[in-house]
# Entry
Amino acid sequence: MSNLYRPDMTNAGLGFSLPSVAIDERGEAQAIELVGERALTIYVDKQEIVTLMTIGAHPELLTLGYLKNQGFFDDIADIKVVQVDWETEAVAVVTRQGGSDFSERMAQRTVTTGCGQGTVFGRLMEKLKQIRVPDVSIKQSMLYAMLDALKNYNEVYKKAGAVHGCALCTGEQIDFFVEDVGRHNAVDAIAGLMWLNDLSGADKIFYTTGRLTSEMVIKVTQMGIPILLSRSGATQMGLEMARQAGVTMISRAKGKHFLVLNGSEHIEFDAIPERRRSFEEG
# Structure
């Protein structure tokens, strides 16, 4: 990994949460944690691209992942500098060629569903039709082990709630876990990590606490990850896009329960829970 190209980047991550006080149902004061939320505007060669709402844990990775997932850049070597300045709530991206003009691309965009409004650019949709993720199988027992391991994460959610978490996993191993106010921000941070370290998604599993929308499937497909699961539900368009790209989609994954919406042929059911006996059965 040491020989990989890396842009000149700041390390401007912020603390996850802030202390506050609330009054509970008994009229008593309780110390709580509130998620810190900041605006971060991305500029590329001084051209304003987008403003994201984020807790600011990994702003440089978020910026890289956003630019990669939205199709602005394919080669990380095109990016020279990623500099975050929280005083101005901005991140300045400097490219090697300089003077980039994204006016045409910015004109072709569609607002997508999701916390904080993500954007998917028009030409990206055509590109996605050409992508097919690898056929990869997963054991039910390994899925359960991974979900069990994830219980040790969700640090911000446990303290303050109001965030989504995403994880990049290899088997039952949790490689990287990110929380942010918008699930697409957390996905972009992971995409940035993968891009920065030239990681293949072919053997990875992507976990999210958020809904499995078209935006989520689009980003996971671009990352080349074949298995996507969530403790939440899915949208119809998300499922359609998963079928198109061959993504194994698993929803409502919590405890021993899950629903495979696409790719059930890739699941090895080796740990089927015992069926609960009904009251009538005694």
